[in-house]
Design goal:
Low-confidence stretches: none
Mean pLDDT: 94
CATH topology of the largest domain: Naphthalene 1,2-dioxygenase Alpha Subunit, Chain A, domain 1
CATH superfamily of the largest domain: Naphthalene 1,2-dioxygenase Alpha Subunit, Chain A, domain 1
Shape: globular
Number of strands: 18
Largest sheet: 7 strands, antiparallel
Helix content: 10-25%
Radius of gyration: 22 Å
Structural class: alpha+beta
C-alpha cells in the first residue's frame, strides 16, 4: 500500500474516541434467516454468484512454471487453470471429454501434458486432445474432444475465473480495489502453504466472521482481544466488495507521531478485502492470506486457507515462522469463530429466529449482504449499503 494511502487512512483516526463504535453505517439491516438456510436460495446463489460472476481462485505464485496448475470448484463445476508455454493461463472444465473423469488432481505438480487417469486420454496444456491410446479408430467419427474452456484472467498477482459469460477483466471485476492491491506486488510473493477443511454451516457465515471487529472483545477475550481495538475499524467499499481493516491498539501511538512522513499503517492493522462472493484477501502485517470458499450445500462449505510471504523462505527457521502464523490464524478461527458459526446455523435452520440484524457498527457486513441480495435481485432484506 502506498505511503500516501496509509497516511490518508490514519488521518481518519485522529480525534476519534477508541471506546466508541466507528464508523457507523446509515442504518441497520435486517436479513431473513432463510438467506442462510433455504435450499432454493442456495441453488440461486450457486448459479448467479458462483457461475455467472468472476471468482478469485488464487494468486499467480501458486501456478509457477509451464504445466503448473490450480484446481477449483465454480458453482459445483470442477475447473482447472494451467500455465501455458508462453506464460499465459488457460482454464477449462476439469473433466475428460470421454467419460468425465478429472484430468488434473489438486496434488499434481507441473507436467508437459494432461492425462486422464481413467482411460489414459492425453491432452495438451491448452486442452486440445492429443491422443486416445489404443482406441483412435473406435472414436474416429467423434467430433473434436478438446477440454471445455472457461474464462480466466490474471493481473496484479491475482487469478480470476468465470464459468459463464462472454468476457472477464480483472480491473473491471475489482471495481477500484486494485489501487490498494497493486502496490503490494503480489506477483512476486511466494506461496507457503494451504490448508483445507469442510465447515458444517453456510458459506456466508464464514465471511460474516471477518466483516466486523465488534465481536473481538467478547468472543476472542482469551486470545487476541488484548491487542485489538474492538470498537474501531476502517471500512471502504469497492463496488460489491467490502474492505474492513481491524486495528491494533498500537495504531493510536502511530498517529501521535508529529511528522506524517513517519506514519506507518500496515504494521498496526489486519486489512481484509472480501471479493464478493467467496474470496477473502487478508494483509496480516507482514504476509498475505487468502480464504477461498466453495459452497458444497446450504449447510456445508469447503474452505481453503493459503499463506503467502513477500519472499520465499530461505531456511527452516523462515518456514517455521510462516507456518506458525498460519497455525495462529486457524487456531483462533477453528476454536473460537467457527464452532459458534455452526451453532448459529443450527439455530437458523431450526427456525429459532426469522431474521438477523446487522448493526450500524457493522458497515462491511451490511455492504456484503446488500451486495449479495442485489446480485440475486432479492428485495426482502431491509437496510442500506455502507
Amino acid at each position: 500500500m502506498k505511503h500516501e494511502r496509509q497516511v490518508e487512512l490514519l488521518r481518519r483516526l485522529k480525534g476519534l474516541d477508541p471506546t466508541s463504535p466507528w464508523p457507523l453505517a446509515p442504518q441497520t439491516m435486517r436479513n431473513p434467516a432463510a438467506h442462510y438456510v433455504d435450499p432454493a436460495r442456495f441453488a440461486r446463489e450457486r448459479q448467479v454468484l458462483f457461475r455467472e460472476r468472476p471468482q478469485l481462485v488464487g494468486l499467480s505464485c501458486e501456478v509457477q512454471g509451464v504445466g503448473a496448475s490450480l484446481t477449483a470448484d465454480l458453482g459445483g463445476v470442477p475447473v482447472a487453470i494451467v500455465r501455458q508455454t508462453d506464460g499465459s493461463l488457460r482454464a477449462f472444465v476439469n473433466s475428460c471429454r470421454h467419460r468425465g473423469a478429472p484430468v488434473i488432481a489438486a496434488s499434481d505438480g507441473p507436467r508437459p501434458r494432461l492425462s486422464c487417469p481413467y482411460h489414459g486420454w492425453i491432452y495438451d496444456l491448452d486442452g486440445a486432445l492429443i491422443a486416445r491410446p489404443y482406441a483412435e479408430e473406435a472414436f474416429a467419427d467423434a467430433r473434436p474432444c478438446r477440454l471445455k474452456p472457461i474464462l480466466v484472467a490474471e493481473r496484479y498477482g491475482l487469478i480470476l475465473a468465470q464459468l459463464e459469460g462472454g468476457a472477464l477483466d480483472v480491473a473491471e471485476a475489482l471495481h477500484g480495489a486494485q489501487a490498494e492491491i497493486e502496490p503490494f506486488g503480489l506477483e512476486s510473493y511466494a506461496f507457503i502453504e494451504a490448508r483445507e477443511t469442510v465447515l458444517p454451516f453456510n458459506w456466508k457465515l464464514v465471511l460474516d466472521t471477518f466483516c466486523e471487529s465488534y465481536h473481538i472483545r467478547a468472543l476472542h477475550k482469551n486470545s487476541i482481544a488484548a491487542s485489538y481495538l474492538s470498537e474501531v475499524s476502517i471500512c471502504d467499499a469497492f463496488g460489491p466488495h467490502p474492505r474492513m481493516v481491524g486495528l491494533l491498539k498500537s495504531v493510536l501511538t502511530e498517529i501521535e507521531k508529529p511528522d506524517e512522513a513517519d506514519w506507518r499503517f500496515l504494521p498496526h492493522t489486519t486489512a481484509q478485502l472480501i471479493f464478493m462472493p467467496s474470496g477473502l484477501i487478508t494483509y496480516q502485517r507482514d504476509h498475505i492470506e487468502l480464504w477461498r470458499l466453495t459452497p458444497l450445500a446450504v449447510d456445508k462449505t469447503f474452505a481453503r486457507t493459503s499463506l503467502y510471504a513477500p519472499t520465499a523462505p530461505a531456511n527452516d527457521k523462515d518456514r517455521t515462522y510462516w507456518r506458525k502464523n498460519l497455525d495462529l490464524l486457524l487456531n483462533v478461527t477453528g476454536n473460537e469463530d467457527f464452532p459458534l458459526m455452526a451453532k448459529i446455523h443450527a439455530a437458523l435452520a431450526a427456525g429459532a429466529i426469522d431474521e438477523l440484524v446487522y448493526g450500524r457498527n457493522e458497515p462491511a457486513l451490511i455492504h456484503l449482504h446488500s451486495s449479495i441480495n442485489a446480485a440475486l435481485g432479492d428485495n426482502q432484506a431491509e437496510g442500506a449499503q455502507a
